[in-house]
Amino acid sequence: MELWPWLTAALLLALLLLQLSRSAKFYAKIGLYCVLCFTVSAVAVVVCLLRHGGRTVENMSIISWFIRSFKYLYGLRFEVKGRQKLEEDRPCVIISNHQSILDMMGLMEVLPDRCVQIAKRELLFLGPVGLIMYLGGVLFINRQRSRMAMTVISDVGERMVREKLKVWIYPEGTRNDNGDLLPFKKGAFYLAIQAQVPIIPVVYSSFSSFYNYKTKLFTPGTVKVEVLDAIPTAGLTIADVPELLDTCQQAMRTTFFHVSQLPQENGAPAGPDAQASQ
Questions:
Q1: CB neighbour list of residue 75: distance below 8 Å, 6 or more residues apart
Q2: pLDDT in tens, 19-43
């Protein structure tokens, strides 16, 4: 029995499903995104090893170049305000909101020189993706062992000052698409105060107008990115962590609702767009 008629029929059926089914389109785009991540990571690993020979923050510029190309395939635009605030030649802690797997594109769109991320340790074992993160200098922490995580944070504080590194952290700790920000964890603020370096908040607008996992929406769209003014930590102590955390979160929430054009009522999102995202 010849396979070609069956393969042709299967291909035509798949194309028909993509035309008719919103869910099929969504999962096809997500599947392609995952394939791209693994394929591009494998290629970038070779480039990074040939260029720099091993693990170094300088590899992030190579990784960034590869990932930024994804936006053209998916029809995404990034409108960035205040980018120059990230380019100052000084160590700092950068914090941003965390919405979906697409955040990687947003991160690479504005990633400054000599900037590394702190990520959960599980990502290290994702084949070529974990390897390219390792080569890019990403710092992995075991969130299940808080004492070990704090030891890593302490080591990072000393290293970022010594090597003039910028460290990027998602203070929410996990992805969140509920139309608001989750409560922040304290690690980023301990790090900034320990190292006595400023915190620079970066806010991405809601993806809900073009990407929504629950409704299987994934279309071209525009992401507004706003880099807020640096918040100094000079002279602060560990006792100031709660106030610093609250200051940063309130500034980011206000900006998030503004750039996302979401109404805010009694500290929570309101209106049809917010309800849809929830």
A1: 219, 220, 221
A2: 657 888 898 899 999 999 999 999 9
- DSSP bridge partners of 200: 94
Tell me the Ramachandran region of residue 173: left when phi exceeds 0, alpha when psi lies from -120 to 50, beta otherwise.
Answer: left
Is 130 in contact with 109 (CB distance < 8 Å)?
A: no
Query: How far is residue 228's CA from residue 144's CA, in Å, rounded to a whole number?
Result: 31
Alpha carbon distance 53, 49 (integer Å): 4
Give the DSSP H or E segment for 10.
helix 4-20
What one-character DSSP code corresponds to residue 248?
H
Q: Averaged over 138-147, what is the pLDDT?
A: 76
CA angle 217, 222, 226 (to 5 degrees): 125
Give the pLDDT band (50/70/90) at residue 274.
Answer: very low
Tens-digit pLDDT profile for residues 242-266 = 999 999 999 999 999 999 987 665 4
- Picking from 115, 185, 107, 97, the residue whose alpha carbon sits closest to that of residue 156 is 115
Segment 195-221, tens digit of pLDDT: 999 999 999 999 999 999 989 999 999
- CA-CA distance, 109 to 124, in Å (whole number)? 22
Q: Residue 204: CB partners within 8 Å, gap ≥ 6?
A: 96, 97, 99, 103, 106, 223, 224, 225, 256, 259
